[in-house]
Amino acid sequence: MKLDFLNPLRLLAALAVLLPLAAGHAAETSAAGLALGPADSRNVLVVHASNSVQVFRGVLEDFSSLNPGLRLEYTELSTQELYAETVSRAAQAPASRSGPDIVISSAMDLQTKLVNDGYAQPHVSPETRALPAWANWRDEVFSIGTDPIVMVYNTSKLAPARAPRTRRELLSLLQAPDQPLAGAISTYDVEGSGIGYLAATQDTRLDSMAGALLAELGRNRVAVHASTEDALDKLERGEITLAYNLLESYTRHRIDQGAPLAIVYPQDYTLMLSRSAIIPRLAPRGDLGAMFLDYLLSARGQEMVARQSGMRPISASVNPEAGVRPVGLGVGLLVYLDPLKKRHFLDLWRAAVHPPGAAAP
């Protein structure tokens, strides 16, 4: 952590965190969590995030090594859970300080809505000020890294020469006479996944063929997955051949571990979404949440985010390659969160993906 010696209060707060308070720094792990640092520390940073513990662990361990006297408690939750718990906590105890000190989610539209509805607090620092405009909205929600949304296929079940490179080619493959993807394709369950809903609504906004593609997915008995990890498990086991709309970072991690998978970056357009962070208005230790955010946005933090989690650093996303469509933070993300618009979209999605009389995948 970079110390500001011109600010005595900030210096004292930083030294209090950096001072080791107790021995015993062994990591404590669970199915959906990780705890690092001394159990009796008076400085406890609570992080709730949609990032997989397995993928994000290296980043957390590096931050902990820089702050050995701090207790870090990390819990992995779905994007919908992160949003719902922030809203419900504020409704139940609007004056109490409780819950996480920072929330990180891949559903950048839900994070933006939390800010818009008053559930976040601002944070200004040299690190946040250095962000490009699309990665910082109102000094309350910040991109910490970007992740392209891709197609992924099992190389033992689909020849590379036949793998679709665009959505039009995917549509043609779904319509092929030999039906290579019938009962063997998956996409996000947009009703249960915040990032799945975001990706699907962005497709509708950008692609005139989105409706036709959804209809063909339904005719091919598409399965729906709750998360990228869920889809990757099915791909590795050969239960499906191709998955549409997955996070690149998780997929790259599986490929590095030897999974027989290949990534397709759609040539018509590839959505680049942000993992975004907010400091909740009710955070007990918003100062620690801000310190972790500044670490993530620092040069060292961005290097660790890229190396350990597979996300792309913000600096590498400012001038994306041809075909990549970065999605910026801001009010534009709230359009499809309007209740009437959301209900209409979900009705159309259900009718297309689960047509009446269709056999279960």
TrEMBL record:
Q: Signal peptide location in the record?
A: 1-26
For this UniProt record, give its keywords in alphabetical order, as a comma-separated list: Signal
Name a GO CC annotation attached to this entry: outer membrane-bounded periplasmic space
Q: Name one Pfam family in it.
A: SBP_bac_11
Matching entries from SUPFAM superfamilies are given as:
Periplasmic binding protein-like II
Q: Which Gene3D superfamilies match?
A: Periplasmic binding protein-like II
* Protein's name according to its UniProt entry: ABC transporter substrate-binding protein
What is the originating organism of this protein? Achromobacter pestifer
